[in-house]
Amino acid sequence: MTRVSELELENLFIERLEQIGYEYVDLHTYQDVLDNFRVQLAKLNAKKLIEAKGEASFSDSEFERVMNHVDKKSVYESAKILRDQWVLTLDNEKTVYLSFFDSIWDNNTFQVAHQITMDPAHRNDVVYKNRYDVTVLLNGLPVVQIELKRNGVDINEAINQINRYRSYSFKGLFHFLQLFVVSNSALTKYFCNENETVNGVPNNILKSLVFFWTDEHNKRINRLEEFTATFFQRAALVEMISKFMVIKTTEPVLMVMRPYQIFAVKAAMKRVIVENKNGYVFACTGSGKTLTSFKLAQLLRDQPRIDKVIFLIDRKDLDDQTVDEYNSFEADSVDGSTSTAVLVKQLKQADRKLIVTTIQKMATAVRSERYRDLMESYRDKKVVFIIDECHRSQFGKMHRDIDRTFRNANYIGFTGTPIFEENRGSARQTTADIFSAGDKLPACLHKYMIKDAIADGNVLRFSVEFENSIKITDVAAPGVDPEKLDDPQYCAEHDIDISPLYHAPQRIEKVAEHIFAHHDQHAIQGADTYTSLFAVDSIETLGKYYDVFKALNEQRPEEKRFRLAAIFSYADNEDAPDNPAMYLDPQADTSEGDQQLAPVQKENAQMLLQRIMNDYNQEFNTAYGLDSFDAYRKDISKRMKQKELPQIDILLVVNMMLTGFDARTLNTLYLDKNLVWHSLVQAYSRTNRVDKPTKQFGQIISYRNIKKAQDDALRLFSGDGDPNCIVLESYPEYLERWVRNVAHVRLVAPTADMALNLQAEDDIREFIVNFRALAGTLATLKTFSQFDWHDLSVAMDEEEFEVYKSAYLYFYDQTRVQDDKKKAPVPVDVDFEIELVRTDRINVMYILGLLKEAKSSKKTAEERERDIDLVKREIERSDNAALRAKKDIIVGFLENVFYELPEDANISEAYEEYEKQVLQHELEAFAQENGLKPEDVQHVFTEHNFRGELSDEDIRKALEPYHLGLLKVIKLIKALKEFVKQESLRFQAEGE
């Protein structure tokens, strides 16, 4: 069957748009776009213009004033202009309020244009000439750009193409583009425009912000024809732009909602405005409930019939985050009430229609005699309560008091983990009971479960490793299987309590050692270092682990130490121990060979927390105490959400941060506690926020056997779906995938050298796609605790992979070239996902630059030592291959040369000279050890670097003058090859 060409696809798409009411307009150049805009803007504002000047048109000078207002504005500024009215002074000195867009859909003019060309001849800020596929215009302004590829071509290439257009040719009125659509006919996605630069740095659209379109049941609409029939309906497009996009006010960001968010808002609006009933939205954790609830609150607030919209949050640690996010969407839209008195003051303000507060404060207000009169005044007012994390038990307990006061209220809940019959525990009511809409209407307004979010790429899957931390080979009790003693259900059925084993000092030490041994594998991905949580079962356990962690950390070289922190709510009944806990002093004397830490003092939770805070203050140069706990919590939250130093590497918690805490920079959860149902899903979901391609999943390392509890919970909260769709495959399965990926790479390029010599565009494209998949599999394998290159070498070893990677990077670099001097016909829009393979943010030049700064005469001795400490940390954190290979050389340079250099020394030259000395010393040492001349070893080394590899025959010829026996020659050939390979990796110049 003959494929439809891109041009044919464009024409078919335009025909479909014309059928649903779009007018085709023949625009070729930017001047054509300007001329059309002038006509259409006058048409939209015809009534005002006729009243003010007698005709619906602009004079040249009037249109010039319009262009002065709209031209040379950023995407963000243009989005605001599109939605605002603007006062135009006419030539007759009268004024009119011009609209650029009308939220009543049929007041707008809808047009479609084909292959508009932007070039430097028509705008001097256009860098390269580009011709666009299909452009949708509203009132003459380009608002949607559609880029189409022929069937079978990866639509990511269309995304890359749009990113190029954004950088080089989307100028002037094309800054009004709100949305992009990309399709290859069989697969279609949409996404939002953004400023093309942020602080002068190119700001490409992230693949994670490119969305599928679906129906209200989350069924994906892939084909362009079906997508067009729903997404491009004229009323739907205007509704999308007017209601379901957000212009953040705290940063220049434009956002578009995803289908499930839109359907949830629509369903909730209908439930309140039309049906006057309650309901809840089941939207999985991490799917953007805050944005959804904000849009719902904003739209409800703007309804004249509604007196107040009150957003209720269950816990203080969620309060600040929600208020900050709401205010980022719309400046000063909410003022988080810090006390019941502040809440009451806000309730008295008639012009404050949106309030964010905690359910505890609202419950206090309605129970208080002091506020009775105020609360009575709300008895019959139309109030809508939006409840975040509405699965929490506190809401069920306090709901009755609030409901008795606000008799005319509606309640809309949001939760990723509803309370069902299966997981309600001691709770009397399910979420459906609390948000009941009567017998005729379902309580659940819309579902978007974790399986849907993973399928859409809106959250990540989980990689779960269960580490057996209790091994018992024999038990005295008859009929008890020692192999099942780590299974909580088995122990419960047989009335076995093994909790003392979980808290034994020897086990705690072994778990801590395992975490420390493998933490870098989990945390360092690509050029980024992610943060992690370690959740334990009690404050007492946390104290024991914290002390062991500290002791282990102090045994490590200073540059390899982890930044540790801990937090818990010591006043909270669910966290606090019944009695003062026994804690262990890591400094206590122990008998030789004793692996246990000696108990030396009793310490209650407050004492422990203050001690932890003291360590934190010393680590991060802060000054927190028990009286500033909230500030301490906020500082921890901030450091957990950043990848730059100084961040927290491992945060120990009991229950805090396991719900409501969202951070893309967190990717690992260590568990030494039993979790079930919603608490398990909530905790797991701290790790699976989408970030860069290198973050492919959230990692769970559990030291308890909660496999059955995990499967039950994931099945329940995915609508009885297969939990294996949510959890990553095992290490052996990824090894099999590695073998398959290697085979695909070798089909295109049997050797790495052949990859570098690929010439045909289709071959290069296929190599890039296959190697990208291989690199993704490797990135996944490296996160498993049992990762070992030896397991992978059956198909491809590390050295060969690095050579293939150099070909991949070579082709990537060719796409950066913007002239005709390319050495290879690389498809310019191919999707590389370079983050999977390039890890040179912390490279040799970067380290030398830090050393140069440290040598500055303006630095104090203390600052210089701090800089050196940073350098050592950066070296350890980097997984850049060249830097890793040179690590011992750089450390040697620091210890033996750096401190003796004058302040004005050229650090790079000094380091290069030191490298030469080290190389020469090692060549001479190898020569002496093996009875060879240094110049002969140097010759083999140089030849290897020049050719890329040396055969056994080449080395044998170099050894002929020594007249050695056969066995000796074979041994030396092997030793020389290994030595030269190792030294070449260590001493190659950066970038080779």
TrEMBL record:
Q: Which GO terms describe its biological process?
A: DNA restriction-modification system
- SMART domains recorded for this chain? DEXDc
Q: What is this protein called?
A: Type I restriction enzyme endonuclease subunit
Q: Which UniProt keywords apply?
A: ATP-binding, DNA-binding, Endonuclease, Hydrolase, Nuclease, Nucleotide-binding, Restriction system
What's a Gene Ontology MF term here? Answer: ATP binding
Task: Report the sequence similarity comment from the record.
Answer: Belongs to the HsdR family.
Helicase ATP-binding domain: which residues? 270-419
Taxonomically, the superkingdom here is: Bacteria
Q: Which InterPro entries match?
A: Helicase_ATP-bd, HsdR_RecA-like_helicase_dom_2, P-loop_NTPase, Restrct_endonuc_type1_HsdR_N, Restrct_endonuc_typeI_HsdR, SWI2_SNF2, Type-I_R_enzyme_R_subunit, TypeI_RM_Rsu_C
Q: How does it associate, per the subunit comment?
A: The type I restriction/modification system is composed of three polypeptides R, M and S.
